[in-house]
Amino acid sequence: MSDNQNPRTPDGSQRELGHRDEHGVVGTFADPGLPEHRSRQADRDPEAAKRGERQVAALFGISVIGTIAALVVYFVIPPDGTTAGVRLSTLTLGVAIAFALLGIGLGAVHWAKVLMSDHEKVDERHPIASDEETRVAAVAELEAGVKDSGIARRGVLKGAVISALALFPLTIAVPLVGSVGGDWNVSKLKHTMWKRGMRLAIDPSGRPIKAADVTIGSVVHVIPDVPEEERQSHEWITEKAKAVVLLVRLDPRDIVSEQAPEGEDWSYDGIVAFSKICTHVGCPVALYEQQTHHLLCPCHQSTFDVADGAKVVFGPAKRPLPQLPITVDDEGYLVAQSDFHEPIGPSFWERLK
Amino acid sequence: MTTSTGNAAPKARAGSGAPTSRAGKAADYLDQRTSIGSAVKEFARKVFPDHWSFLLGEIALYSFVVLIITGIFLTMFFVPSMSLVTYHGEPASMDGVLMSDAFASTLHMSFEVRGGLLMRQIHHWAALIFMAAIVTHMMRVFFTGAFRKPRELNWLVGTLLLIMSLLAGFSGYSLPDDVLSGNGLRITDGVVKAIPIIGSYMSYFIFGGEFPGEHIIPRLFTVHILLVPGLILALVALHLFFVVLHKHTQYPGGGRTDTNVVGYPLFPVYVAKAGGFFFVVFGILALMGGTMAINNVWNYGPYDPSPVSAGAQPDWYMLFLEGSLRLMPGQTEFVIFGYTLSLNVLIPAVVIPGLLFTFLFVYPFLEAAVTKDKREHHVLDRPRNVPVRTGLGVAFLTAFIILALAGSNDLIATHFHMSINTITWVFRFLFFLGPWFAFWITKRICLGLQRKDRELVLHGHETGRIVRFAHGEYIEVHRPLDEQERWLRVNYQAHAPLEIEPATDSRGVRRKGYKGDKRMQRLSRFFYEDRVEPVSPAELAAAHSHGEHDALEGGTHAEVEAGAAVGGGRDLVEPEGGADERRP
Amino acid sequence: MKALAARRHHRFAPVVLLLLALLVTGGVYAALAPTPANAETASTEDIETGQKLFQANCATCHGPNAEGSDTAPSLVGVGAASVDFQVSTGRMPMQMDGPQAIQKPAQFDEEQTAQLAAYVASLGAGPAIPTDEQVDAELGDAANGAALFRTNCAMCHNAVGAGGALSEGKFAPPLWETSERNIYQAMLTGPQSMPVFNDATVTPEEKRDIITFLVDQREGSAGGLSLGSLGPVSEGLWAWIVGMGLLIGAAVWIGAKSS
After folding, report:
1. Phi-psi group of C89: left, alpha or beta (phi > 0 → left; psi -120 to 50 → alpha; rest → beta)
2. Closest CA–CA distance from residue A3 to any residue of chain C (Å)
3. Are B279 and A5 a contacting pair at CB < 8 A?
4. Which of C71, C82, C151 to mutate: most A Cβ within 10 Å?
5. In total, how many domains does chain C have?
6. Which domains does chain B carry?
7. A184-211: pLDDT as tens digits
8. CATH number for the domain harbouring residue C54
9. What ipTM score was computed for the predicted complex, to two decimals?
10. pTM for the predicted model, two decimal places
11. What residues of chain B lie within 8 A of the CB of C256, using their CB?
């Protein structure tokens, strides 16, 4: 029952509705035309019109006042650096500017609503498609152009043009893409800066950590022990993004499982260290719930059980947090035994290769 | 115009006379060089239909202008560099701290530049409103069917604009290089890394090496102030060009057809209303920027890979991705021949948004296919008259809102004292059940509203006046609809499911395209099997002359009271055009 | 009275009646509500008094000698700081057993709290109540405090201490109203789910820096209304409610016919 024609009835007011009732009779209601125009107060009553005019003028006047106020505020109320001072400056300038703008806006709209002619006008719509004549002419022009170019007969040319145009973007794209990726050495993702004997230090102060200072129930945010001067660069931040570790001490009776293989011990006296970078998509897993010894990541709520090899107990992560093997040096400071035994952080395709 | 030799220049067009006024002279000067007269003739009094819901797109447009204006201010002070500096200044919590220049310049701009914090806040509120307006405008276009021919291309342009705006917002809020947006970038990096085969290389491509590196902020700056705004401006120009070319759609009503456009002229009415609206939008954004704090980056601190704060969410328009990531259970990561495939990240961050956006892009063409409707449409649909479309739209919104709520699950947990784990589980189920239920209930409500409209047309408004006849019967008096009210309710087309040619032709040979046709027909049935036809004049006449429904065209009250009504009946129709007369 | 009766059908009458009813109910409750129980003792020694308070209010769960039980941990060695924190914030005595101790009006006054603390401290060496100087917000370094807060605290308590969610319905409460002393004591003793930040991990000076930072945050935001300082979600909510609300309202006004 589809109606394919664009109805071009002469007067535009009658319209086939194309529905059928139970008797199969097609009937239509007549379009009643535009509703009657309701006059406004301002149209009928010159006093009301004058009042409207005054209101519009007042609104524009408010805008002018707002502008002046904004300029005064700008010079007279600068931000003085304190919270209250900046707040005052922002507030007064913002409100003044708002008045300056709203005055114009409300004035213009009020003018249109109250005073400008509100008699509806009717324009004709024409079908979007060009008329037949034009289309024929357009096709003819194109055909003439194709004939002039001779491409229809010369197939080799067509292929050559396409190949050349398709290929040339590579001259820009390849250098752009190639140079933008740094050294492209993705194997760096598999290692962190932790090494055998490297001390664990407190983040952000950099103090090394004695095993005795880590009490049951405490948590320490850890970075590798690197001198302060070397921690002021991008290279450091990029390394830190892989190296941050969370250190907790558990009652050894609470430990259910460890990631260390048979014969190895990656913890020290109940102190365990895990990578702080979530294995889901990389947020720092920082919420340590002392009583449940669960580590909660605030970004997507992946939850890891520190006493059970940092296994995932809830949330969208799959893999446990990699454990950093630790021990103590002869001064009692905690040190790493080696780097992590697997790449930290989110998964990537060649992670295990 | 005559051609002549020598130095005779073409004279000004005859008939206009020599312009005398200042404006006239200026117009003449311009027209002689640009032939602007034809444009003025065509556009100055162009008619646009009037309805408040047509202003939603303007909110988006004007917020974009505000973003550009305030953005220019910000670019005067923002330093798009990750070089580390030690900041000295306000606030006290940031004094002496090592941070990137991007972050430091943001602090300086907020605390030391006059109007700096105001402009930052207006800019950020405008970004949130920009996205909200785009979504609202898109909903209006969807529910009224304004995407039908000839506007399918404009719908595509609009959906592209939606995506571009998401990129604009994401790149923008990441520029200050604070802990919150920095963790957002880290999440992006994690998602990118999860892409099979090329993921780690794409991560290097974006960050110029390992995360975070020192290139991402300057790169995002280029994206944010040049590439994306350039594309948005081009697409907006195309979008508005289409609106002018196709002329704006109009709501159904008396005198409004597919071949006319009823409204007010551009100059002066819309110049005043739409121009004024720009100032209203800007003014409201300025008010918000001056009174409501937003994105106080000094509280989050300069980006460092170690800290993270509770309430780690992106801006609201990215919450659907955030919720998606939070809801996905983690078991679905697999190792295949030593290669890691993280479906637990790919499904929520790539597949789900892909499906959502595909639905948006494809919908106009889907509907065109199930109706085989090739007509131009310029009169909008009332949402109740297209129940399945409206239901699908509400289902889509439900899915989107559920994801956004899931992305806020920790805030829901703290504010309503609930367990975040329980909330996550509830949303996991709701994500599937919610849209289905929303679709079903919306469709039923639409059909119900259509039936109510039919009842209204057939029987008129209930007046609440009861008439008792001498023989003891009670009936309620109904007032028939006036012409305009009735037209609004009958002037629509209830599409029926597609009819297809039979499977075999007259000779019994199976037709080639039959399977495809059958599938399309089944889909068409899903859309249009349940439908309510509009009332026809024949039905209306039948309703009035039916034994149970008494028509009293032209009858007076005296006749009614005298019992001139024939037979029993449930209701009584007042004389048409009769005003409510007081009974003595 | 006649005037009132004449207006009994006024459309606001139900509202007025409701307000009156609420006022009366609230007033009666305030007048008649039972005052919190106080265990009255006559002892002069603080520790002895504290012990008695303990027996009356805490021993049911914590054991007669604070040795702990199935439902409550041992208090030997938790120190005066723990007791001062838990009791002065009303968390203890706990209303309901569970991992989250909800803050409620303190059941004991300052003197009694001190007595309880003295008793528990006498059971075994533990963290002491900090001095006023140790928690003086004027003496700390806000910048260092902010850096420490970001690394150690913001993930649970939110960037400015507005509170945040933990798993299974637990939460880290907002810190807007927490006293300086209690901030210190909470860090030191690690109440309930909160980890312990002993003086080696976060030194006393660093604790004071954190206190300075937190107290600074109570000034509010330089940008205006802080909207709860909850971040982008609340900002988005307000953008829709206030921003789109006003703008759509303006659009409706613009599109409406003028009278």
Report:
1. alpha
2. 33
3. no
4. C151
5. 2
6. 47-307+314-381 (1.20.810.10), 460-493+531-584 (no CATH), 496-522 (no CATH)
7. 999 999 999 999 999 999 999 999 999 9
8. 1.10.760.10
9. 0.90
10. 0.89
11. 52
